[in-house]
């Protein structure tokens, strides 16, 4: 099957792209693997006419937005559940709610885990996109505008950025009007169900069991977990951090299972890389894509019967591109 995939890729000028959370069988054959920032940048700049994106919807959309002439296909229609927690209507309703509270102007920052319509709404208000890899830099830029920041959809990333900057945060719909009015960063109430699995008790458990252990987590984890960690970073930053450790150093990692499982082989026969949860932290939709799906989408393209192609309304894509390009320029 792998040989047939490679043959069709060559014939059809296809770049095969995979996020780090994909199954091993996909990661093994991909031309490009990375975090959401690297994948958006590198796939949109590639020479290939076609991109087959193994990941979730917003990632494929980002390539289409940045490189509208390319055709982008997803082997499976897979969605990020966090990105699905906000759409353009919820965005408008949030802005209305803030106005009701007397907050007339905000600076919106959307995490890349959001759909094209939401990115377009953010661009209409001159806001910007960020990823977990560049969030700190983007936040520095956002803060220069001297307005309250509306951060969406991930409340945890918003809260974590606020505490890193010594700022106050509040969650719209969860916190009181007084707290919202007092906050520097107002967060939308979205979250990642996978990263919510990691708890402060999990960190305490590993620290008690192995006093020398290091803890590395993704910033989609709750503030309680992030505050207890030794390292916080995007998927590629976590990989780099763990790979630079002494091979004997124990580490426990709070992010998706497939990535953690591939990180390090046992050292001297001893397992020293752990998953920060007793529940397997699998992203269900990331795990949907199989080699067979990749082959199917390529066979269909070869027969001129392409399916699962990312198509966006032009006016939405043009606006969303402004917010994404601003991010690339800043990072
Ligand atoms: P990265 O940008 O760090 O790859 O994260 C994407 C994601 O969805 C994490 O859950
Ligand atoms: Fe979305 Fe969470 Fe899956 Fe990442 S791990 S793609 S944030 S649902």
UniProtKB/TrEMBL annotation:
GO terms for biological process: 'de novo' NAD+ biosynthetic process from L-aspartate. Signal peptide: none annotated. GO terms for molecular function: 4 iron, 4 sulfur cluster binding; metal ion binding; quinolinate synthetase A activity. It is an enzyme of class 2 (transferase). Transmembrane segments: none annotated. GO terms for cellular component: cytosol. Pathway: Cofactor biosynthesis; NAD(+) biosynthesis; quinolinate from iminoaspartate: step 1/1. Keywords: 4Fe-4S, Iron, Iron-sulfur, Metal-binding, Pyridine nucleotide biosynthesis, Transferase. Its EC number is 2.5.1.72. It comes from the Bacteria. Its cofactor is [4Fe-4S] cluster. InterPro entries: NadA (IPR003473), NadA_sf (IPR036094). PANTHER family: QUINOLINATE SYNTHASE, CHLOROPLASTIC, QUINOLINATE SYNTHETASE A. This is Quinolinate synthase. It comes from Helicobacter canadensis MIT 98-5491.
């Amino acid at each position: 099957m792998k040989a047939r995939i490679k043959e069709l890729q060559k014939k059809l000028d296809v770049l095969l792209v995979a996020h780090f959370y994909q199954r091993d069988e996909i990661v093994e054959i991909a031309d490009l693997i990375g975090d959401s920032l690297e994948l958006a940048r590198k796939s949109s700049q590639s020479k290939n006419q076609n991109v087959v994106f193994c990941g979730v919807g917003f990632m494929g959309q980002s390539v289409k937005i940045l490189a509208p002439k390319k055709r982008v296909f997803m082997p499976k229609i897979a969605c990020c559940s966090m990105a699905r927690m906000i759409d353009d209507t919820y965005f408008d309703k949030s802005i209305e709610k803030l106005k009701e509270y007397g907050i007339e102007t905000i600076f919106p920052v959307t995490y890349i885990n959001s759909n094209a319509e939401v990115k377009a709404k953010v661009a209409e208000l001159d806001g910007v996109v960020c990823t977990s890899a560049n969030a700190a830099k983007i936040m520095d830029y956002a803060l220069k505008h001297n307005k309250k920041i509306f951060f969406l959809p991930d409340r945890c990333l918003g809260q974590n950025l606020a505490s890193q900057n010594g700022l106050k945060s509040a969650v719209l719909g969860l916190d009181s009007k007084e707290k919202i009015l007092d906050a520097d960063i107002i967060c939308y109430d979205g979250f990642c169900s996978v990263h919510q699995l990691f708890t402060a008790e999990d960190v305490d458990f590993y620290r008690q069991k192995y006093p020398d252990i290091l803890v590395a987590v993704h910033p989609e984890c709750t503030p309680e977990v992030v505050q207890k960690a030794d390292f916080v970073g995007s998927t590629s930053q976590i990989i780099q951090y763990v790979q630079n450790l002494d091979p004997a150093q124990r580490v426990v990692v709070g992010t998706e299972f497939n990535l953690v499982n591939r990180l390090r082989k046992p050292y001297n026969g001893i397992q020293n890389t752990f998953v920060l949860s007793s529940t397997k932290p699998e992203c269900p939709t990331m795990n949907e894509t199989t080699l067979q799906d990749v082959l199917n989408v390529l066979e269909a393209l070869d027969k001129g019967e392409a399916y699962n192609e990312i198509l966006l309304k032009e006016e939405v894509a043009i606006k969303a591109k402004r917010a994404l390009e601003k991010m690339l320029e800043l990072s």
